[in-house]
Write a structure and sequence with these properties.
Distance between the termini of chain A: 36 Å
Strand content of chain B: 5-15%
Radius of gyration of chain A: 15 Å
Number of helices of chain A: 7
Largest sheet of chain B: 4 strands, parallel
Strand order of the largest sheet of chain A: 3-2-4-1-5-8-9
Oligomer: heterodimer
Shape of chain A: globular
Distance between the termini of chain B: 57 Å
Structural class of chain A: alpha/beta
Radius of gyration of chain B: 15 Å
Chain lengths: 162, 133
């Protein structure tokens, strides 16, 4: 099997990931890449609690993920890799050439971010991260749920509606 | 006289508003006023925690009802419960559960525990829908 999706989502593990994507993709595992969560047993328990028993969550730092991604790709189940920030995903893409597609699933409103879609708000640094990911030949788009049409990066960056 | 909210109902989309609206229709304004609806719409992880923390603090609620165990509302509520001893988080809220809670004479652990039992007991297959040929 393979890692079916590489998703950026500031809510990390939540309903849209576990149910919205988890069920149609028949996900067997999630690789949650976040240096803070990887260092906190309580944070890990918090995210693990909401996941159904047939789904495993692996918690990784960026360095740990880069070291173990090849092994995750060999697991017999389908997986999804999740980061909470564009910077984390950029670091993964720059260190792992096997990532060919990245999806922005949710970066919500906060100070300094500009609206792009209902579920995507970006600041200048995040736009730069996504451009850098795209410049490496990775297909970048925004898509919150499986039934929605993916919005390609160039289209996403020119939008100005929340 | 209304006593104000004793619980926050936190859910996806417009669900919390709808559930509290249904409590109003079934049990009246006094019962509905004991529940504050809260939506996670448009909020990122950190902003969701801040907004829900404010809702809990402003109402003095001792319980947060949420919809989905894996949902962002539940995760946010559990974060707040960690820093607020005495705050309960109940997942899988449904209308019978909220009615039992809101119509009880007082809040508190006994009330939400009983409400959970009511909500769980209310789930059933009322008709099998199987046709014999």
């Amino acid at each position: 099997m393979a890692i079916e999706a590489y998703r950026i989502d500031d809510r990390l593990v939540h309903g849209q990931v576990v149910v919205g994507w988890g069920q149609p993709l028949a996900l067997g595992f999630i690789v949650l890449v976040d240096d803070l969560v990887a260092d906190s047993a309580w944070e890990q328990e918090l995210y693990r609690m909401g996941v159904p028993p047939e789904m495993t969550v692996h918690f990784e730092s960026v360095a740990g993920a880069l070291a173990r991604l090849p092994a995750y790709r060999l697991l017999p189940a389908r997986g999804l890799l999740l980061t909470g920030t564009t910077a984390t995903m950029r670091a993964l893409v720059e260190g792992d050439r096997a990532i060919t597609r990245v999806s922005v699933g949710g970066l919500h409103h906060r100070a300094g971010r500009s609206p792009k879609l209902r579920y995507v708000f970006l600041d200048a640094a995040e736009e730069a991260d996504l451009r850098a990911i795209g410049a490496r030949g990775v297909e970048v788009s925004a898509q919150d749920v499986p039934g929605a049409d993916p919005v390609p990066l160039e289209d996403l960056l020119t939008r100005s509606g929340g | 006289m209304s006593e104000g909210p004793r619980a926050v109902v936190a859910a996806h989309g417009d669900l919390a508003e709808g559930l509290v609206s249904a409590v109003f229709r079934v049990a009246g304004a006094a019962a509905a006023s004991r529940l504050m609806p809260f939506s996670n719409a448009t909020l990122g992880g950190a902003e969701l925690v801040d907004a829900l923390r404010h809702a809990v603090a402003s109402t003095g609620a001792q319980v947060v009802f949420t919809d989905l165990p894996a949902g962002s509302c539940t995760i946010a509520a559990r974060r707040i419960a960690r820093e607020s001893p005495g705050l309960a988080v109940v997942c899988g809220a449904n209308l019978p559960m909220l009615l039992a809670f809101a119509m009880a004479p007082a809040g508190g652990p006994d009330t939400w525990r009983l409400a959970v039992e009511k909500g769980r007991a209310a789930m059933c297959v009322a008709e099998e829908g199987v046709r014999g040929d």
